[in-house]
Amino acid sequence: MSGGMVYLVGAGPGASDLVTVRGKELIESCDVLVYDYLVYDELLYWTKLDCVKTYVGKRSGYHTKPQEDIEKLLINYAREGKTVVRLKGGDPFVFGRGGEEADALLASGIPFEVVPGVSASMGTAASMGIPLTHRKDSSAVVLITGHEDPKKPETVIQWNEYAKLNATLCIYMGLTNLAHIVEQLTEAGLSLDTPVAVVRWATLPSQQSCTGRLGTIVSMVNNASIKPPAMIIIGEVVKDAPKFSWFEQKPLFGKRIAITRTQQQASELMHRLHQLGADVIELPLIQVSRAESGEVKKEVFAELGSYEWILFSSPNGVRFFFEIFFEEFQDVRSLGFMRIGAVGPATAKEIEKHHLQVEVMPDKHTGSELAKALIESGNIESAKILVIRGNLGGDDLINPLEENWAIVDQFEVYKTEPTDLSQHPGAEKFKEIGADAITFTSGSTVRSFVKQAKTLQLKDGAQSPKAFSIGPVTSKVMNEMKIPFGREAKESTLDGLIEVLLAELAE
Questions:
Q1: Is residue 58 among the annotated active site residues?
Q2: Architecture of domain 5-118
Q3: Which CATH number is 289-418 given?
Q4: CA distances (Å), 12 to each of 122, 187, 281, 450, in order?
Q5: pLDDT at residue number 1
Q6: What's the topology of domain 256-285+420-505?
Q7: Catalytic annotation on 372?
Q8: In the predicted model, what is the mean pLDDT of the chain?
Q9: Catalytic entry in 36, 91, 279, 436
Q10: Does residue 36 have an active-site annotation?
Q11: pLDDT above 80 (res 61)
């Protein structure tokens, strides 16, 4: 095959919303993703289902693959006709060995494109409120590696020269050599009072930082237990960091929240919690997939024009129903004149994507309340009603309708199953360090959590989280499973859940 292409893409300093639009497009469309240690996990969820993801990360003391093998990997995939994204933390041409990979691709006749990213120095400075240049304090920025290639015959880092510059020094990969760097700079005449910031995992909710002076920074870093990877910024521009700092002032900064939704559904909640500063641990305790009976589908679609109401009890039901519907029909008008009911605003929002209006939605977002609202809306005796549901849907919606003499047909369009988290990285993180909070958004996530109690058992010293429920149906199952919960959302929506988390956890 021919026609392969390699893209050297910068993943930015960490946060997923700092990736360029071009970078995101390529991650979403590539055949192969070859990624580094500093690439944030969320970016991996953007890929196609059949994308081959290969980890080649390097960190201090541990390399999964030698650089030469990584270059061969890119070349071989491209020769197979694949579109390859080589994803690197920061910018691929700033201490990312992107130049070496470009050389190897060029020598092999492989076409490539370079997509820049926000470099670690710029991302770190922004998250700390540090202007790298300032008319009063610094007119230059110097990017320096604190960890040179040990094969070099002699060092090219002239610390004595850098100390004389009226410049901001941004030192990559220098934390393990911090004491030596401080010694070299101070011997060259840089004042012990020079402001310094050291930042780990900049722009991420797990960001850890300390600011001080050249003479005290080594002991401060040791006391704060800051480990690599970290960026070191030295210069007068650092002095205003406490005043300009904004990132670490977010309401949920420093809080760890475990979320238990399916991996596909977790992204919106995870993104919103990240925006509030929270460190999110994913525990996808359930998986949801399409599942419908061919015979039932045939019967339902044959009678579509006879239904007076169609009721949706979840956003999943909406998504899977219309996926099935549009495989059979070309026009939404094939639904006929049936009216539409939704259990809550998230379900209604999914329905409205198809330019359909919801006529009945209860104030309390449960199946029984939807039935009550429908009954109160008019006479439903002998009305033919189609209920869209999953395999775990209860009878709290159906029974009241049938008790009021409605004719109810049920169409199961998806199934919910527990997942196995025994090898999941989120579960390992949860066991090791715990969390401030854990959120449950359905009874099925609660049951799966209890079923996997041994797999998720916290280790000694891990923080025991408060449990939060999205609404009364979930709370009922938590009570049945004897899981004490801190608070229940006033409204059974993501907004309601976030509101209660802020009320309970924000400082």
A1: yes
A2: 3-Layer(aba) Sandwich (3.40)
A3: 3.40.50.10090
A4: 9, 34, 21, 38
A5: 44
A6: Rossmann fold (3.40.50)
A7: no
A8: 92
A9: 36
A10: yes
A11: no
